[in-house]
TrEMBL record:
InterPro entries: AB_hydrolase_fold (IPR029058), Hydrolase_4 (IPR022742). Pfam families: Hydrolase_4 (PF12146). It comes from the Bacteria. Keywords: Hydrolase. SUPFAM superfamilies: alpha/beta-Hydrolases (SSF53474). This is Alpha/beta hydrolase. It comes from Teichococcus globiformis. GO terms for molecular function: hydrolase activity.
Length: 222
């Protein structure tokens, strides 16, 4: 799990990067929760998602947004953090120029940034959004949503009511060609316990493997 430092728009950004052994492996970028509320790349959910993508054969990067850990710069209200994520994706693509597929995964604030990144990078093949803050940010920018993905939310989320996420999912699923795999973790709040985190990681792996298998079958049929 080598440490990496790469250029961001407001200084150098600190990350952890795993390079897959398989040539042309898919790549995944994992984004952490809100920097002003203790969010870092070492967050339990972020680390679990990073490990699962790694286990599935992805070249995988998690990193600290500006002003977090050893990343330079200061918190920028989400705008600069979207640029940080784009710089992280640039780093991933530079190291993996022939990647078979690009994924982004985010937790809470990271889910919002990840879905903003989808709109800026049409080459994205899939996403995983955990506890997306649908009641705190306007997700109307997903019109149209560029690709399908997984959204997972805690049934008892005390910060972001589950109904607000379900409403967003229904809007996205009404779009042509989009299929959001929506899963609700019963008994979970906004912060997941170790046991709930394991189930979140299982759900993410199940979704990603399903998409990868479907893609392989489609390619084999051509």
């Amino acid at each position: 799990m080598p440490e990496v430092m790469f250029a961001g728009p407001d200084g150098r950004l600190e990350g952890r990067y795993h390079h897959a052994k398989q040539p042309n492996a898919p790549v995944a970028l994992v984004l952490h929760p809100h920097p002003l509320h203790g969010g870092t790349m070492n967050n339990r959910v972020v680390h679990a998602l990073y490990s699962r993508f790694q286990d599935m054969g992805f070249s995988t990067l998690r990193f600290n947004f500006r002003g977090v850990g050893r990343s330079q710069g200061r918190y920028d209200g989400g705008i600069g953090e979207i640029s940080d994520a784009a710089a992280a994706l640039d780093f991933l693509q530079a190291v993996n120029p022939n990647a078979s597929m690009l994924w982004v995964a985010g937790y809470s604030f990271g889910a919002y940034v990840g879905m903003q990144l989808l709109m800026r990078r049409p080459e994205m093949g899939g996403f995983v959004s955990i506890a997306a803050p649908a009641s705190h940010y306007d997700f109307g920018f997903l019109a149209p949503c560029p690709c399908s993905g997984l959204m997972l939310h805690g049934a008892d989320d005390e910060l972001v009511p589950e109904a607000s996420v379900r409403k967003l999912v229904d809007k996205l699923n009404a779009q042509r060609g989009i299929c959001i795999d929506y899963r609700v973790e019963e008994g979970a709040g906004h912060v997941f316990t170790a046991e709930q985190t394991e189930r979140v990681a299982n759900a993410a792996e199940d979704h990603v493997r399903t998409v990868l298998n479907r893609t392989r079958m489609a390619m084999a049929a051509d």
